[in-house]
């Protein structure tokens, strides 16, 4: 039996190379929505850490990093503060085993404890696996900007709690915020 731990991180340095590898592996065949250059990925990870404000978790399987999720609580959209999930990435070796769902659960619990009622994320319009994954968790498309779809979820929604781990067998569940891709300066 594999031991799974989801741990909040405050310092990127000890895990930077592992997280960069996971990101590049997860996006290996995704030339539309992801950074390809390893040095750019490293800068992006630093940007994520800077804006996470306590919302950066890494999933470990038997002590080895296997995925991560990053939330930015203070995002603004049309003048309103709505936290955004900037990245949910699972190593392809571990995809379809419920890690993405566990990471999402940790992020949603974090936001609920901080009093937020809503969360959003951006997903590539052609990333159908990720979109289906998020829809199963109760996210709904609320906006479109270019090749990106904004999905939002009410945090009071019980749909997330009703999902069985068998239903979350997506091969790819990763997202990148349009804001992080465009305005992060990465």
UniProtKB/TrEMBL annotation:
Domain of life assignment: Bacteria
UniProt KW keywords: Acyltransferase, Transferase
UniProt domain N-acetyltransferase: residue ranges: 7-156
Ranges of compositional bias, category Low complexity: 165-180
Molecular functions per Gene Ontology: acyltransferase activity, transferring groups other than amino-acyl groups
Gene3D superfamilies cross-referenced by the UniProt entry: 3.40.630.30
Pfam families: Acetyltransf_1
Region (Disordered): 162-186
UniProt keyword Transferase, yes or no: yes
Protein name listed in UniProt: N-acetyltransferase domain-containing protein
Organism field: Thermodesulfatator autotrophicus
């Amino acid at each position: 039996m594999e031991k799974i731990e989801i741990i909040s991180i405050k310092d990127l340095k000890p895990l930077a190379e592992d997280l960069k590898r996971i990101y590049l592996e997860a996006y290996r065949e995704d030339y539309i929505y992801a950074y390809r250059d390893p040095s750019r990925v490293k800068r992006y990870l630093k940007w994520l850490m800077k804006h996470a404000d306590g919302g950066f978790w890494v999933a470990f399987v038997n002590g080895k990093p296997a995925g991560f999720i990053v939330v930015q609580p203070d995002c603004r959209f049309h003048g309103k503060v709505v936290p955004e999930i900037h990245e949910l990435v699972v190593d392809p070796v571990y995809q379809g085993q419920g890690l993405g769902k566990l990471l999402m659960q940790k992020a949603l619990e974090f936001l609920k404890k901080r009093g937020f009622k809503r969360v959003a994320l951006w997903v590539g319009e052609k990333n159908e696996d990720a979109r289906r994954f998020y829809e199963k968790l109760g996210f709904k498309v609320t906006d479109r900007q270019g090749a990106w779809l904004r999905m939002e979820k009410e945090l009071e929604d019980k749909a997330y709690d009703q999902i069985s781990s068998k239903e979350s067998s997506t091969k790819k569940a990763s997202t990148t915020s349009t804001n992080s891709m465009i305005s992060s300066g990465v």
